Amino acid sequence: MTELLLPNDTNNLGRALGGAVLHWMDICGAIAGMRFASQQVVTASMDHVDFISPIDLGEVAVVEGYVFNTGRTSVDVKVDVRAENPRTGEERETTSSFFTFVALDGDGRPTPVPELSCPTAEEEALREEAVEERREQLANVAERFG
Questions:
Q1: HotDog ACOT-type domain location, by residue (predicted)?
Q2: How far is CA 44 from the centre of its chain?
């Protein structure tokens, strides 16, 4: 999904508010989770987030998410954000994180999700990369805050 960074979502430096970026990431992750599970999903957790570079007023935030792992009733989604200058096409990474969503049935109770299938080598490589990246991120957080 894309968002144009407008003044209501900026700080006094003309850069994206962290909360706005997290909001976009949560929505994107939920959409990926709902599409995968064919059910409503709710956010269960979000891993550590580092804001690598800012998104400036007038830039486009490109938010991409994909399911990389599943549990019985949960889906893990990697969400990446990059900033794009709409006039030049120049892009840069700004942040990424891992979310866990729980699928809910019509009564609002956790419900099973399908198993993740990666039919192509490219999809399997993307999944393995996300699993390893999350493992490293969690280890680094444990080491720092331990």
A1: 1-107
A2: 13
Q: Which domain holds residue 120?
A: 2-145
Q: How far apart are CA 101 and CA 110, in angstroms?
A: 10
What token pair was written down for 31?
Answer: 């959409």
Distance CA 78, CA 142 (A): 19
Helix, strand, or coil here: 74?
Answer: strand
Q: Could you read off the pLDDT of 72-115 as tens digits, one per residue?
A: 999 999 999 999 999 999 999 999 999 999 999 999 999 999 99
Number of domains in the chain: 1
Q: How confident is the model at residue 140 (pLDDT cuts 50, 70, 90)?
A: confident
Query: What phi, psi does 122 have (nearest 5°)?
Result: -65, -45
Q: Which of 95, 97, 101 minimizes the C-alpha distance to 48?
A: 97
Q: What is the CATH number of the domain that holds 91?
A: 3.10.129.10
Q: Which residue has the tokens 């209501």?
A: 8
